[in-house]
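Sample 3 of the quickstart, ligand adenosine-5'-diphosphate:
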Amino acid sequence: IVDAHVVYVPVSEHHFLVMALLYDITELKEIERMQMDFVGNVSHELKTPITAITGFSETLLQGAMNDPKALNEFLNIIHQESLKLTELVEDILSLARIDASPELKLVEIDLRQFLIELLKSFRPEINKKEIQIYIEIPSGCVVQVDQNKLRHVVNNLVQNAIKYNNRKGKVWLKGTIKKDFWFISVTDNGYGIPKDEKDRIFERFYRIDTSRSRQNGGTGLGLSVVREYVEAMSGKITVESQVGVGSTFTVTFPVVLPKKELNNEAE
Ligand code: ADP
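Result:
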């Protein structure tokens, strides 16, 4: 896409010098389009739970609350939709935060300790679905990370490994330092991801459209936030998966961060 300015410079009474200035605005237009798409998607995603909350509360106020069965059912829907709305707003805020402050706050952590601590908050979900969790991380793996960003990343991956898993499913957390990089991987033996959707799941709002995925209903923003956080820490995220067998998400980071991040640390 090109934007052009044409300038006519008179050089004599009958002659003009025509100068054309061409600007390549492909990238600008692309960013503009992505922002418009994002706003459109956000509005659409917000409207769905808001419509349900408004509709069901109105029905209750108009008299349905006198029927105990309807009262219970509609309140449950209102509660579920409010939770969805909260999750959506939190994900949108996370995305806005990365855009606003990409700098890192680096600290040294022991990987094993960090992950054991993080898993504690999953206890209710793990118990409810009877999930088995295995940790394979040697002690003494000390790495330099932005703790909040890494917590957000692993939380999301573990949450998905539980969410898109069967009852009594298994989740493995592995990690170690290998010479000049370190990694964490989250493996599950759950639903798996179709081959042609493996790249798309990192797009904002993308969800795999199977009835099982829909039932678990997320925002479709989780993995796009994860990828942005991982890349902000100079890392990479990869996924290996097979439908009906399970998935492994691996995040890999350099042991020595590029200068750019180290400068931020000093600020
Ligand atoms: P959501 O909020 O829907 O969970 P994500 O961005 O975290 O959004 O994930 C996008 C989609 O990728 C999900 O809707 C789900 O279909 C698929 N997905 C993510 N993690 C897994 C997993 N561990 N196993 C199977 N499918 C997954």
